[in-house]
């Protein structure tokens, strides 16, 4: 498959996909946009997940968009094109885009396991990927521990594991059928390592809470899930590095998992801008001086926003297919542009939305106004991992100055959790009540 | 009464009142802060007005804070001290501060009518002011017409008036007993003029809607009110300038009415900053590099925010007592620093709050988190009159370049409404249904 | 020639050329960088033009870099690659990059005349292009009239023209052999039109002043030139649109002429950043918190700067080869991304340089420090045509709101000059004395 | 003396002095402004010190402006009023304001020694102060060591000292008669302490270099001075704390010494703004949309700039006269608002000046244009001590989080210099050659 688009277009600005698979996915998604748009306000208000939309996605194979064609998926494998698709959805509803990104992202990372992993990982990945295509799997991801618990795998004594702990901020949780979780082993026998168990919805120890009530992204179903001695077969655990390994190779997967989320905030900013220009153009009076200035300024920031995100995506797509590099160096080379772009997205997108509120005026300050939703949703970008702003400064400045440090935020968290001796002693039933 | 504080303190930063009345009002308000703070979250969530708090205010004479002592009030007459009081309330709850400001502001402007108006105006003002002290009046203000109607006074044929139209964004509406409304006469007999009728809650043609559902300021009861041929005696109408009079003297009253609202946003920013620094100081790890930088930067912006608002308030207090100047020049000299300060407040306060969210992290992105409320509330500052950002640019640039124009935004609106021929023909019963 | 780079790299960030010609030109320019770098400070201080460098460029065929291969040039025809080359030079010296850009830009626009013009234009273009390759021509461009004169062509009565007037801000003037000038005909016989006469250095009426003394770009030889009845044969005049034609097709050529200049400011910012990071990395103490934060922030802005400029360049390169579009629409589609990118470049590049001064500290505040030069040079970006910030707001907001206006700034100037009735009556000898 | 101005004006905005002494000094300075203004451009270009202006200042007693009246001075003792005076001078020429501030600042700090010091300090201070009044003394201050040397006092064996080292950035050096230097003792006998020897111009070991060549502030004579075993009698040394004492009391004097310098940058911004508005108002066309917006925005930032600086000054004036507080707490309470204000000044003032260049256009980019000078001069604010931006973040964040550290930057430097073992071994004759 060629990087080159058919029509001599540059890979720039996230305006059009660059692969046939990208075009195919976008075309199909466009069919769902009226539905997504028409239910966005009510789900936002109620804080409910658009289960109907996701049922349709499941039934119509949409969740297999990024699954390799060999496994029956649509074969979308370019981050740039994933972003173009997510951007289109985000213009209709940012929450839906966030939840859908989760699936697209899982397709990409499980696809990587399927192509490059060991036999056990490949088998597990294939199973999940085929289920996504069949509409039998909505695969969620749980990264961040609730402050009260370190999510830990303990050997069950017969070759399997028991998983306990609590994850927070698991998007699409209400419809999730499988949860790929970031955990650590308890250190029995060998030093603790990072690991990714896959927990199915019907696991007897699993509880999916209904506790999402966000400032924004209210329809994203970003709930907590609690594990109370969930039995996990060894074949359902992807083993990672030992805690504290300082292996920057992990940054590649983290980048691939998350970078296309930037398109959510690009989409929100674009939607806000379009709506605002249209509203002002409808007014009988010509735009006042400051309205002209703000529209030109905000339009330029929107241009830079698209350019910056798209440049990072295009660069990382190239690195993503280059397996000849040193894995650590490749990880850092992927994470750096991602973080540079993320910093700018989280600065530019909210500023564009805020200027749009200024331009539209008081009407935009009512709870149900589309711009009010944009104002709340766009702020989520600053909280996405990796990294938060504060962590990104540590990463980027250490890269600039050549200072050695552990760049794997999951490893960081694991070490910090251990040093603070938190919560594994707490019984999960207690955790449930919070 | 002296401009000088007792303790040789400069009039700076809105840290302390500068008059005994200011101290007295602030001391009493401090007693209510625990109540205000404890109910803020639930009123914000439900979008309900803190009627209980205002009942207490009413019964305990708090609504007479700015009523002259001669009429039984507490005699607070310095805008600077009004702002200090409002700031304290806003740190607990911005919505309550906005609704309370409405009363304090009415005390000031009615006090001015009582001191400087003609006999009819003085009588009307005294009546309202005494009622505020007695706890019998919550006086609301209706400035902005709903887009569907020009609020108009038509002669009733026997010396009185009939009022029809609709006002939007009337804060404290749910508990309002009197509504001082910005209207225009219909031009029968003489050219249309601006006028301020006072409508009592029990007027047969008055409907107070329950339609506030804001992005922020959700507990401020900022509703619409509809007038359907409300009979208004001539004695209850304060007559202003003809529409289009270009009388900049009106800017003085507009400044006095609104400038202390800046303190709401200062209070929100201060509350966000305090909460954030406390949260970070509690963490076991030392603050990371970017956290140190953001705290220092945001703290400096907070300092500038307080300094800028307080400087404008102190300057305007001096002009407010100087009746020797040309009234138009005085109006412009008061409006300019107000607008300069307002522009900066609406830039600095939201940026401080946003940085606080960044520092506190994902927890701040839940709907009920105090910072999430700050994030929504602080954005209201851009929509307060006079002026919006876009209008402020027109005003300030014309002042800088010496370009003559009509600076009275109410007059502007009246002219525009007339030229667009809107809505007086629409029946109020139709208006009610929107 | 393919848009695709050899190594699967995306067209992104202005890191590498995308065509073989781009690589060839960059490789040769790299050989000159030590010379350029080593003389930059002294030319900056003295305000002198690097004549030696340009002599070398001329002799070694460098001025034919963008001349079509059919005419003996190096055939560089992609704006993206022109920008990559200019960026590399600007990292060594911004003034040299500005003067060299002038030549590269002339090669492109004259190449367009040679390919698409009428017979007379083609002959003129070919003559100049071959002279550039041979090292016999340094072709300068004069756009902006001195405030004292409207540069005007008057018929000489025998089929040729007489040119009088004065141009300001003509870069590389000290070594210019040919001057392509923006003028207007005097309206004798037919309505005035825009026209581009080519004036040779030896024209008896031409004076090249030695009057450049810039805040920055001090080695760019950006002088005034005065025309005192210069005889110009008809064959040396490229005729354009009538004044006031509102022909947006002209925007295409204006974009091609100027957009690669953005790379100058990208280069200055990159040079400042590299120098600063290196200086801090050499210090014995680890970087303080704010240094870490600023380096991460400035690095991210630098990333966005490169991404934004490169995205605009890549987009415009595609439009530049697409002659199937409506010419007016093509002009607007090229100018919009150029202006969006220019706005951001002029905001981001100076902010990066200023942060670098902060990081390096007091040493950077001495006149000869490389960062002090960057600080002065980078500010030039705001003054480059088209457009200034103020004009760009008019253009971009009218595009956003669909407001029709004359977007050709040269036409604007011509109309304004006429309406103010300036200066054609003034004798050029008077002009010389200013 | 009262804090209250005569005309009921608030202490706000640095528009008018608040004390009679302030009015007297400002009135006299106004008489010199035409001279200062008329020679500013030529001194800027040549990088020469306005010796003539300072000769006049000296002869006419201007250098005694802040000397107590008891010693024959004009008795200006309010920082606010010092700032008002410096601001007026800075509007004419920032370099002159910087050099004059040095004298005003010395009057204040020596006045403090005279009032509150021990007998030796009082005698020394009185001698210098009387000489300032008489026009016999121009007292300069040398704070920052050249990177090559730690300025050190070594006992001369007979009760006096020998001073060696090199100071950089000593403003008004060309006309300095006395140099109050920050040094440390060499640690013979007792631990090293900070000390302030006073070196007279005729000291045999003193060399005043002629090496200032700044990016801006080019007429400020900010040179290096070298000490080669200068004999200093014990009576000419003010002894301070031991190195590393962590005595925050020192912050009070550092604040008093430096805060009024903020007015320099306020003055530059005001001058740039005034000049720009006047230039635009003269143009025949009405201002374009972006010009209106920028003028309103920049005017608002200028308002905030004045408000922020004036609030810090007024606050610190109160603390300055309050000797009842804990000295360390007083030091911190003075330094905090100073640093908050300084951060904002260094952000707001350059942004105003840059917008002015944008508004005026290309003419402002010539070396001799007043705005070009403003652009270079205003950037100096970031390099003034205490603190630089990076150090200010350390100070302010540690104050916010309650983290204990050494806040005395001179002590910091002394410790760092010792730990890096620099340069005391180098012979001063070597130092001279750099």
UniProtKB/TrEMBL annotation, chains A, B, C, D:
InterPro entries: Acyl-CoA_Oxase/DH_mid-dom, Acyl-CoA_Oxase/DH_mid-dom_sf, AcylCo_DH-like_C, AcylCo_DH/oxidase_C, AcylCoA_DH/ox_N, AcylCoA_DH/ox_N_sf, AcylCoA_DH/oxidase_NM_dom_sf
A GO MF term: oxidoreductase activity
Coiled-coil intervals, chain numbering: none
Residue ranges constituting the Acyl-CoA dehydrogenase/oxidase C-terminal domain according to the UniProt record: 259-381
Alphabetical UniProt keywords: FAD, Flavoprotein, Oxidoreductase
The protein's Enzyme Commission number: 1.-.-.-
One Pfam family it belongs to: Acyl-CoA_dh_N
Gene3D superfamilies: Acyl-CoA dehydrogenase/oxidase, N-terminal domain (1.10.540.10), Butyryl-CoA Dehydrogenase, subunit A, domain 2 (2.40.110.10), Butyryl-CoA Dehydrogenase, subunit A, domain 3 (1.20.140.10)
Acyl-CoA dehydrogenase/oxidase N-terminal domain boundaries: 37-104
Family indicated by similarity: Belongs to the acyl-CoA dehydrogenase family.
Protein name as it appears in the record: Acyl-CoA dehydrogenase family protein
Annotated source species: Micromonospora harpali
Source lineage: Bacteria, Bacillati, Actinomycetota, Actinomycetes, Micromonosporales
């Amino acid at each position: 498959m060629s990087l080159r688009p058919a029509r001599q277009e540059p890979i720039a600005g996230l305006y059009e996909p660059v692969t046939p698979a990208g075009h195919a996915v976008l075309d199909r998604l466009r069919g769902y946009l009226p539905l997504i748009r028409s239910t966005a306000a009510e789900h936002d208000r109620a804080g409910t997940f658009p289960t109907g939309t996701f049922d349709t996605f499941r039934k119509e194979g949409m969740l297999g968009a990024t699954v390799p064609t060999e496994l029956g998926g649509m074969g979308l494998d370019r981050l740039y094109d994933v972003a173009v698709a997510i951007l289109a959805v985000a213009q209709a509803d940012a929450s839906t885009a966030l939840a859908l990104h989760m699936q697209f992202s899982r397709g990409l990372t499980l696809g990587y396991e399927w192509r490059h992993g060991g036999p056990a990982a490949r088998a597990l990945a294939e199973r999940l990927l085929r289920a996504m295509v069949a509409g039998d799997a909505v695969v969620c991801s749980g990264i961040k521990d609730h402050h009260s618990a370190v999510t830990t795998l303990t050997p069950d004594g017969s070759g399997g594991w028991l998983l306990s702990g609590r994850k927070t901020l698991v998007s699409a949780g209400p419809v999730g059928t499988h949860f790929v979780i970031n955990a650590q082993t308890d250190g029995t026998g060998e030093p603790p390592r990072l690991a990714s168990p896959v927990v199915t919805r019907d696991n007897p120890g699993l509880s999916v809470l209904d506790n999402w009530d966000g400032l924004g992204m209210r329809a994203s179903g970003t709930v907590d899930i609690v594990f109370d001695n969930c039995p996990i077969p060894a074949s359902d655990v992807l083993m990672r590095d030992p805690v504290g390994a300082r292996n920057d190779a992990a940054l590649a997967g983290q980048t691939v998992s998350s970078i296309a989320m930037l398109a959510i905030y690009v989409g929100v900013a674009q939607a806000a801008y379009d709506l605002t220009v249209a509203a002002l153009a409808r007014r009988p009076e010509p735009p006042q001086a400051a309205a002209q200035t703000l529209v030109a300024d905000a339009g330029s920031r929107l241009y830079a926003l698209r350019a910056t995100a798209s440049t990072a995506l295009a660069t990382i797509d190239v690195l993503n297919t280059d397996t000849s590099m040193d894995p650590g160096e490749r990880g850092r080379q992927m994470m750096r542009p991602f973080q540079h772009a993320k910093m700018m997205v989280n600065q530019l997108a909210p500023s564009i939305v805020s200027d749009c509120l200024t331009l539209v005026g008081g009407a935009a300050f009512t709870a149900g106004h589309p711009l009010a939703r944009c104002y709340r949703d766009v702020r989520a970008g600053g909280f996405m991992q990796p990294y938060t702003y504060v962590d990104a400064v540590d990463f980027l400045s250490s890269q600039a100055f050549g200072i050695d440090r552990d760049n794997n935020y999951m490893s960081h968290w694991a070490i910090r959790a251990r040093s603070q001796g938190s919560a594994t002693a707490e019984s999960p039933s207690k955790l449930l009540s919070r």
